[in-house]
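Exercise 7 asks you to align residues with tokens for two separate proteins.
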Amino acid sequence: MSQEVVPGGASSPVVQSASREVPYDDGTHWRALLGFIIISMDLVMEENIYRLSPEGVGPSVTRLNSPNDCNVATLAAQIDGMAEAASILQPQARPAVICYACTSGSIVIGEDEVRAEIQRGAPWAKPSTLVTGVINALHRLDAQRIVVATPYLDEINTMEAAFLRERGFDVLNIQGLNVEDCEAMGRITPSFIRDFALSIDHEDADAIFVSCGGIRTLDVLQEIEDAAGKPVVCSNQAMMWDCLRRANINDTIEGYGRLFHMDWGESE
């Protein structure tokens, strides 16, 4: 076998691989590939996406460079990196759907603005936002009167209440925890989230909405729904339900509320 000299003076035999016929299939995303744009400090979203991805659905994730502070100004600034983030989400495989995975950012920036930037970066994909999924989920559950629990500052809660009312919902109560630290949001205990959501419920509410993709609501969503006796929507559940339905994936997923037992219906 011939020898070649490698840096440092050592020698190594030249490798010559045998010719082989290599088979290929459609990979992990033989049913659908979905793309998600996540803020950089989020601890929860990525795990939730993979948890709610049925077999054959391949999630592709990228992150926006964002500060740890969660306020109106920092959320508004996230639009600047949106198109570039969308452009690097598996451009050769081309996800069927690309979603900006931030509830409050979707509201502060605006759904149309986010979708336009995603489309600019990835014109082959259906663009969406997390809050679009929430709106579609609430409509699909026929929830008109809602209560809303969030970890946000009240400046964000004020915008969220106005947004939901503009979209036709009767917000009976909205309460936030005034947490500004994005990383800390991911460490709020699920049992506290459960108790917080139930504490703001109203007998006239059709559904409870727990807002924010960065908190661990998914861990206790079924508990909240069982205790309240009404539908519960949380950000990551609604986003995944909506993105899957956009990609024509209608699987029922047990343990995450009645929403995952419903098809897409006439959503946006």
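Second protein for Exercise 7:
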Amino acid sequence: MGKDSHALITGLFMTVLIAGIVIIIIWLGDVQTQTNTYVAETRDSVAGLNVGSTVYYRGIAVGKVSTVRFSPNNPDIIIVPMEIESDVRLSRGVYAILELQGVTGLTRISLKDDGDHSEPLISGSEPENRIPIKPSLIDRLSVSGEDAVNETRELMLRLNQMLNEDNIRQVERILINIETATEQFNLLQDQAGKVLAQVPALTADTRHTLAELNGLSHDAKQLSSQMRQDLAALSRQSSELMQAGTMVGQRLLHTTLPRANTLMLQMKTATRRFDRVAATLEADPQAFLLGAESQPAPGEPGFRELK
């Protein structure tokens, strides 16, 4: 009975041990998960990336690196085949970034998707289906840091060239000129303060002048209004005068002138008569008192021809 118990325990132990070894082999070999092969490529360094490095997609472990090698068609390109779980769907907008794992110096691949392309990515090693490996933030900062160091070095060299003895003396002269200009500015500021102190009085005078100008403007407006009224009255009077002149002219033309013409004819006739009376009186003054005598007719005695 004792031997049988030891044999049973030994058999159970060996069964459990074998089952554990099989489970560990399956877990380590990852044979329980079907995978698809995707290939990433880059022209930069992949330091720290090894076979078996974990591949993450959006922060989740989805596969491992199968190998890291140069492309047989182009030695400048490094290709990284990856075994990705078959249930992970990648689009053509996916790209890879190398990330450091803590302080170990090892590198893992992190897959990201910019969402610009929704077309699914086909697995395989064809060049059109490869995933580009972009520089990480650390790589970009490293490149930027090197560029900044180079620019700083160049800047220091230029500063050293600028700060020679001639330029230093020129800077000293500039500083002296600046100091002189500052003193002149202070003097100008004092003079400006004095001028500003006189501004209130000038402002009061200006206001008084503006008030007087407003009064003059008001008077000018009144005068202009009165002148317009006077001009209107003068215009009316001129119109009436012109109408009266027109009427007088018409009356003079149609009434007075004909009468004056008749009067002049009558005066001419009267003048002729007066001339005959004067001639008669001159020839016979007694006729004015005794009356005119009958004159002998021509051919009668005593006929005298008047001269």
